[in-house]
Each structure stands twice: as structure tokens, then as C-alpha cells.
Amino acid sequence: MLACIIFSIHAEAQFFSFSGNVKSPEGVPLPGANVYFKNLNFGSVTNPEGTFTFEKLPSGKYFLRISYLGYETYKGEINLTSDINENFVLHPVIIAGEEAVIRAVRVGKTDPFAVTDITKDDISVINSGKDMPYLLSMTTSFVPTSDAGTGIGYTGFRIRGTDAFRINITMNGVPLNDAESHGVWWVNMPDFASSVNNMQIQRGVGTSTNGAAAFGASLNIQTLSLNNKPYAEVSTSLGSYNTKKHSVSAGTGLLNNRLTLDLRLSSIYSDGYIDRAFADLKSYYLSAGWHTNKSRLKLITFSGTEKTYQAWDGVPEYTLDVSRTYNGMGKYTNEMGEDTFYNNETDNYQQQHYHLHYFREFKPDFYVNTTLHYTKGAGFYEQYKEEEKLSDYLIPDITVGSEIINSTDLIRRKWLDNDFYGLVFSAVYKNNKMENIIGGGYNIYDGDHFGDIIWARYAGISEINQHWYDNNGIKKDFNIFGKVKYNLTGTFNTYADLQLRGIDYRIDGLDDDLIDISQTHNYIFFNPKIGCNYNIGDNKRAYFSFSIAHREPDRSNFKDAKKGDPVPLHEILYDYETGCNIKYNDWALDMNFYYMDYDNQLVLTGEINDVGDPVMKNVKSSYRIGLELVSSVIFSEKMRWNANITLSRNKIRNVNILVDNWDYWNDPDNEPFQYTYPKKITNISFSPGLTAGSSLEYKLFREFTFTLHSKYVGKQYIDNSGSEERKLDPYFLNDIIIHYSLKGRYVKHLDVSLNLINVFNVKYISNAWVYRYFENKEEKRFDGFFPQAGLHFITGLTFNF
Fold this sequence. Notes:
Blueprint: H1 2-12, E1 15-23, E2 34-37, E3 42-45, E4 51-58, E5 60-67, E6 74-80, E7 84-89, E8 114-119, H2 120-126, H3 132-135, E9 142-146, E10 155-159, E11 162-163, E12 167-171, E13 174-175, E14 198-203, E15 217-222, E16 231-239, E17 243-251, E18 259-270, E19 279-291, E20 295-309, E21 331-333, E22 339-341, E23 346-363, E24 366-389, E25 398-400, E26 403-405, E27 407-430, E28 434-456, E29 466-487, E30 492-509, E31 519-535, E32 540-551, H4 555-559, E33 571-583, E34 587-608, E35 614-634, E36 639-661, E37 674-683, E38 690-701, E39 704-713, E40 716-717, E41 727-728, E42 731-742, E43 749-757, E44 765-775, E45 778-787, E46 792-800
Parallel strand pairs: 1-7, 12-15, 36-44
Antiparallel strand pairs: 1-4, 2-3, 2-5, 5-6, 8-14, 9-10, 10-11, 12-13, 14-15, 16-17, 16-46, 17-18, 18-19, 19-20, 20-23, 21-22, 23-24, 24-27, 25-26, 27-28, 28-29, 29-30, 30-31, 31-32, 32-33, 33-34, 34-35, 35-36, 36-37, 36-38, 38-39, 39-42, 40-41, 42-43, 43-46, 44-45
């Protein structure tokens, strides 16, 4: 019924053509210029002659933006009531362009990869305080999750079923992934989205970049945006679960055509949907830039401080029917024999970033960018532990009369104190037919891991803040890459991208179980990427690419490896991508087919090490194969629809699934240590075969927008056994976003928003874990599920001056 109504509206609209050409003041055509309708989130690029054509646009007003690297952006309004052909002249910029900083790691319009571009406008409408994974949740093949159930605090995401530890993330070309764990912890960067100008998600291996290998996708973030005029913004949001966000930002604009200063301060608090899963977050962002017509020097510093109550264990399955919000972390028995919770079972961390960017244009077609960066992180998580052995904390047993005390209740802190610094660079040279890029970087990570006891019921002969373990990880990472893009015929482009990456990683010291984890690993990886692109007319193209990526094991893979077993091997990915983009003036369709073939992928099989920790094992053969469809339809000036769907198969071949046998400890001669279940083929965990997203936007009038966001995530298996007994049910979510913007006498504009989230109050679970074992010949398990909040809301108010 909805489709019939929409298409009937579409059928009644009048359509006209809009065409033109884009040139420099000297009359030179500008091929590849972006011609974009801001109010429709739709556009195209000029052909080699600098012309563009939109053959069938609904009548109405359009806000046009035309941009080209090195030239001032044209902004104007088009009132389309008849066919229009118009000429546009772009003038060279008087200061160096910001977008050149991330050109080396971004995919261009004719590069043979599947990408999603997200603009500042896309983010600002939904930026009510939730972490980055929830702001990106409507993008293709994307599934977010939240420990606290509200999208604030500890959050994560997967793309094509690949977890965030295998996704490369950079900010202005600087790696954000932790060098040891490979993860990015958005909780350390609260309200970072308010300082983002644009983002690009590259699905698959994508183009070469700095930092950890992309094994499912990469996310490139740009914060460097030039505001020519002074501005100020005050924003506040309030919502369910005592959610509060307050933010203020301001900038000087361009002073004397040279100096810019920008500042943002933010505070976010939420109690969380899960019991006691509060998040108290604060951050700032500060930048200072010196601009000339040929160069730019810019210093950026930003920091995040977080305190969150731990909710990492999830909700045991047997309590879900009684309480979906139960959080067992911090639970202990007091002196009265009553169950209670330690009120400071928290995670505490501060991370400070410094980036110094220098850009220099030598010629309009040749420029260089370098960045020095330094990140300082320090923090701990605090835990109350009952009946811990004194010997596990290097405390001698205590003798009181004839009694020997060998265990105690205690409070411990596990610390991480790390430094990450280095240099990244890029150089770009281009002419009419070719673009050449050379880039790379050298980075050093130095991380100290240690633990202290801050209180013990029986302290014995221990020191104040008893230090019980200490180890250090040092990782040196260099890479250099070269990219060549060549236009053979005007319609056929080739792409070649070669990267050499070297890693030197050393761990020294004892882990928290007092086991020596000292070891050294060295790698040299060669990561080639080739592809081609064929433009079939102005608005259609087809492409193909083949890429190879290597990924080293992370810290946990190394330190948890079972003694006597082979050292975990690095993983290899062979990524085949082919697709086409079809654009007409009122609709567009992107189709991408991928086949990701893994060699020695590290997966959980149920195997454990000598102290009972799970071990990730290399499996020789596994793959992901899928089809991604992305579509947008402009029904009228008032209505548009964006949608995406991913269909996939995600499999592991020839793997042994292991289950612990606790009966072994009673009868080791007659019982196996673990039961083995061979699988010729099984499903990769947390890899839904179907994901889909839909965004239907309707403008009641220019200032008032109503948007319906819908997200479907198919069945997900919790482990790699592929058992129907251990799976997450599919879920279908709907959010309503109401946005109203108006101009005032004393403000540039005032924005009011209301986000109604999960409007149908769906009870769903986005993540889980399971540990299986046999006891008395019966299979049992420990598990944790992460239920997400039902119907809730966030309302926001933003003043722009």
C-alpha cells in the first residue's frame, strides 16, 4: 500500500532536464567535478569534457553545490520549472583546500571499490549523543551493538559480519586502531561526531591506508574543515534513561585570510538500559590553523575522558525472562550474607590526541601532506573479587594462631598506560589522464600493562597498592604505498595500488596470571590491489577489483596461545569485488558482488589454554560471499527514499569444534579433556545472511522533516558450531526522526529534533557469548546476552549563531 501511494505521488510529478558544463576562468573544462543537490543527497560528476546532464528531475527548488579540488565551491539555488542548461565557472581557492589531506586514503568516483560517503549534514540530524557505531547504523552491511543497550558507553559494530578489530579506522589519515588489540574504543572519544566534517566507509579491503589491515572494511574520518566566517553553536539533548548531552562549539572564522581557531566542549551522561550501566563522558576538540594560498599548517588536539560501570558480561540466558536488564558485574556477598553490588565496578580511561598537519601545494596538480601525531592514553578498570588466592597476587599466606589464611576478598585495578606516535605522509601528482599517489607512515606504540591491589580484607605482608603483574608491549609499524590511476580512453580507467608493510612487535613481562608472556614477532607484508572502471555513459559505470590483505595476530592471540602449540599465523584475505552504479536523475542503484576468501583466519573453536582462557585458532579455509544493493529514489521535492540490502553466505570449511569436559578432572585416565566435533562446513558467527536498511524522508515543508529509519538484521549464530540452539533471533527496528529548523532574529537558525527509537518496542538482542562444557555427562553452558532498549526517545535543541 505504501509503495502504491509513493509511486502515485511520483507519477503525478512534472520532470525536467538540468545540464551544464563546469570550467575554470580560463575556459578549461574541469572533469570529475562533483555536481550535488544538497537537499536531495544526490548528484553526479562531470565527464572528461566537463559537462553533466540530469535528464529527468522532478520540478521544484534545488540547492546546488559544485566542487572541484583546488577551486572554490559553487553554492546556489535552482528553481526547476523548465529544462535548464547553464555554464558554471569555478575560481581557484585563495587558500589551500582541506580535502587534499585525506585524498591519499580515500576512494575517488572512478575507483573500483564499494563505498559509502557520509556528510556532516547526514550526521548532524541524528547526532543526539550516541556513539559513532549508532550514527552509522543505516549504512550498508552494518550492524551495531551496545553493552549498555542504549548506544552510549561501550559500543561496537560489524561490517559484512567482520568485527571492528579487523576494520581499519583513520582520522585525517592518522591510524586510530589500537596497535595491540586492533580495536577502536569509541567510549574514549565521546561526541567525536560533532567534530567530523565527513566520513567514507570502504567495504572489503579497499584502498591502501595507514595502520592495521582492513579485513572487512575501512572507515576514513575527516575533521579538517575550514570555516571562513565566525560561528558559535550551543546544543543540548535530553532523553530516556537519564540521557543528557551538552555541547558548545565556536570558531573565529578566517582571520586576516590566514588564521583559524575552532573549539568544542562536550559532556554526555546516561544511566543505560542495563542495570547500573551508566556512562559519564567528557571531551574537547581544539584546532588552530595557519593558511596561505599554497600551504596550511594545522594543529589539532582532542581528548576524551570516560567513566562507565562495567556491563561486559551480559545477561545470563536463564534470567532473560525474569529481568532483561540484570547486570551481575560487581556482585558480592556482604558480612550479613546478603548479595550486594560494588558501586565502583567501573572502567576509567583518558585519551589525549595531538596532530600537526602540514600541507604544501607546489603546483595545482602536485601537492604534499605530512602529519606528526602523538596519542597518550592511561586508565584502569576496577573490580571487587571474592575469595581470591593470595598467592595469585604475590602475597604470602597469613598465619593467625593455628589458622592459615590463603584467600581474601580484594579490590584490584588493571592498568593500561600507553603512548602512540609517528609520522604519516602522502604526495599526489595528477594530470589529465593520470593520478599518482605515494604515501605511508612510521608509527611506534609503547604500552604498559600492570595491576594493583588497592584494598584486601586480609592484606598480610603486602605493600600499599600491591603490584602483582607488569608487562610491556612495543610495536613498530611502517608502511609505504603507491597508487596509479590511469584514464586509458576517457571511459575506461585502470587502478593499481601496491603497499609494503613491516611490523616489529615485542612483549616482555608477566601477565595477570603470573605467566611469562615474553615473545617477539616480525612480519613483512606485500598488499597489492588492482582494478578497472568503465564509464557507460554519464551516469553508469561498471568496475572490478582484486586485492590481497595480510593481518598480524593481535596481543590476545599471542598471549593466550596454548603452550606447546604453534604460534598463531598471520591471516590472508583475497578480496574480489565487482559491481555497477546506475544513476538517473530521480533514482540510483548500486550493485556490488564480493567474494572474500580467507587463508588462516583466526576464529574461536572452543579450544582453551592451560589456564582456561579461550584460544583463537587458525582455520585454513573460510569465506564470505555476498551481494550488496543500494538504492535511492527521489519521488518529489518533498519525498526521497534510500535503501540497502545485503545477502550473504559466511562459511568455515573443515574445522574441529571443541567442548570442555569437566569430568576429566575427576577421572583423567578415562575421560577426554575436550570433546571434538568435526565440521566440514559451518557458519561464521555473528554474520547474518541478510541485513537491510531503509530511510524514508518526507518534508512537510522546507523547515520540517519527518524520517522513518528501518533496520533488519537476520539470524546470527553465537559461536562457530552453526547450531540452532545458539543463535540470536532476527530483528526489525524502526526509528522516527522529526527535525524542525527555523531562522531567527538573533540566531542563524534554530534546530529542534525528536528521535523516537525502536518505536514498536521490539525486544531484541544484538550480541552474546557462550562457553560450553560437560559435567556429569550433561552439556551445560555459561553465557551472556546483550539486550537492547525498547521504545525510548532523545530530544535535542541546537542554536547556531
